[in-house]
Design goal:
2 helices; 130 residues; single chain; eight-stranded mixed β-sheet; alpha+beta; ATP Synthase, domain 1; elongated
Length: 130
Amino acid sequence: MALTVQLVSPERVLWEGEAQIVVARTIGGGDVAFEPGHAPFLGALQTWPVFVRDESGNETRIASHGGFVQVDNDRVIILSDIAELGGDIDVDRAKAALAGAESALAADADDANAAAARQRARVRLEVAGA
């Protein structure tokens, strides 16, 4: 038995497939692993990588920049305004964004926008394997 997984943005379904396990980080709940038979769940996602592993052990990595995860009846739906598959990430652009965010934080350690930009860039680079 497998999970049916969908990654949905406001414009379209970015990815869908079957999985044995989905791991995501929720706000206030930490990392949560969803496997077939998981109890219904609804949670807000942090800016953090989401990992989807199929029955063959292949892993799809997703950079999720917030949103929600819903689990019910072996179906996992990840709703995110901004999400990127690892292969779609422009590594050079993510590195430049990280450098810019770190420069802004060096000038103002309390810059919440720069801290959020740094986290998004770090997630992109991790998901891209860079």
